[in-house]
Design goal:
Elements: H1 10-18, E1 28-30, E2 35-37, E3 45-48, H2 54-64, H3 69-95, E4 104-107, E5 119-121
């Protein structure tokens, strides 16, 4: 299975079903540790990394349709956003069905996303 088709893993789904990031704030002072423990609203954002890798996927699709490598490379830029949109839609539909879905999704490309998984939780 290629990375763009990677499924949401159980731990990620469990996080969005069990970790209520929407709770209000109650401050608790613990004198033993001299810290304040809080329970505040924390917006969780899913960051889709490797967005620029969709060009490789686009080249592959265009080659499968019979396009030459040169033409596929020239036309990949117009197909890559569509592929990213498809991947994002799959991820959003799965995570938005959870009890505590992410607040938003952000796509990254370039050097910032050159290593690591296709998407991350922040």
């Amino acid at each position: 299975m290629s990375e763009p088709e990677r499924a949401i893993v159980a731990a990620e789904e469990q996080f969005f079903n069990e970790c209520n990031t929407e709770r209000g704030g109650n401050l608790h002072y613990d004198s033993r540790y001299m810290v304040l423990n809080s329970c505040w609203v924390v917006p969780v954002i899913v960051v889709l990394t490797k967005a620029d890798a969709m060009e490789g996927q686009a080249i592959g699709r265009l080659r499968e349709q019979g396009m030459s490598m040169r033409d596929a490379m020239q036309n990949a830029g117009s197909l890559a956003p569509q592929i990213l949109s498809e991947v994002r839609t799959k991820i959003e539909s799965k995570l938005n069905g959870c009890k505590y879905p992410p607040k938003t999704y952000l796509s990254l490309s370039g050097e910032l996303s050159s290593s690591g998984p296709l998407y991350q939780l922040c």
